[in-house]
Amino acid sequence: MPVAKTLAYDHEAYRTPYPFFGQTTVGANGVSPKFAAFTAMQVRAVCMTPNVASTAAGSQPLMFVKSGTATTTTTLTVLTSGSVAPLTNVLATAVSLAQGDQCWVTHGTDATAVLSLGIEAYVVPGAALACP
After folding, report:
1. Which among 81, 44, 75 is positioned nearest to 60, based on CA atoms?
2. Which of 73, 108, 107 is nearest to 91 (CA)?
3. What is the pLDDT of residue 126?
4. Beta strands at 87-97 and 18-23: parallel, antiparallel or unpaired
5. Residue 1 in this model has a pLDDT that exceeds 60
6. Helix, strand, coil % (nearest 5) of the chain?
7. What is the CATH number of domain 19-125?
8. How far apart are CA 89 and CA 109, in angstroms?
9. pLDDT at 38 over 80
10. Residue 44 half-sphere exposure, CB side, CA atoms within 13 Å?
11. Is 15 helix (H, G, I), strand (E, B) or coil?
């Protein structure tokens, strides 16, 4: 049975990205599934690819993090009308998640856009992991 362990700071578990994948729903401010951090983590990048191109110039995707009752927002790269080119957002400052925090993305106010997305997160060294 797995037990929670803290591993050496340079263990592979802390240096390997943990991806969360999803797709935004169609409609203005379409939202991705919400992901919950299974331990202390940092989000370092968000990659978005339009499945259905934006028809409105300047639709602003946002990443939300809910920690307890507080919600914070990170602004991502603006969508280009008619484009299906991938957009990679390497965050200048990693977004910290505590165990149980929720993270999700909206594609902005465009009513037709649908985005596939990948959120790249890393476990914070020293965070407890379930180990066999």
Report:
1. 75
2. 73
3. 83
4. unpaired
5. no
6. 5, 50, 50
7. 2.60.120.230
8. 19
9. yes
10. 12
11. helix
**Order of strands across the sheet that contains 102-106:** 35-36, 102-106, 62-67, 70-75
Count of residues in the chain: 132
Of 22, 20, 47, residue with least CA distance to 123: 20
124 has pLDDT over 80: yes
| Cβ-Cβ contacts under 8 Å for 18 (sequence gap 6 or more) | 41, 120, 121, 122, 123
Is the pLDDT reported for residue 2 higher than 80?
no
Answer for the pair 118, 46: CB distance below 8 angstroms, yes or no: yes
**What are the Cα distances from residue 79, in Å, to 10, 56, 103, 121, 132?**
37, 8, 20, 23, 43
Q: Give burial (CB, 10 Å; 0-12/13-18/19+) of 10.
A: exposed
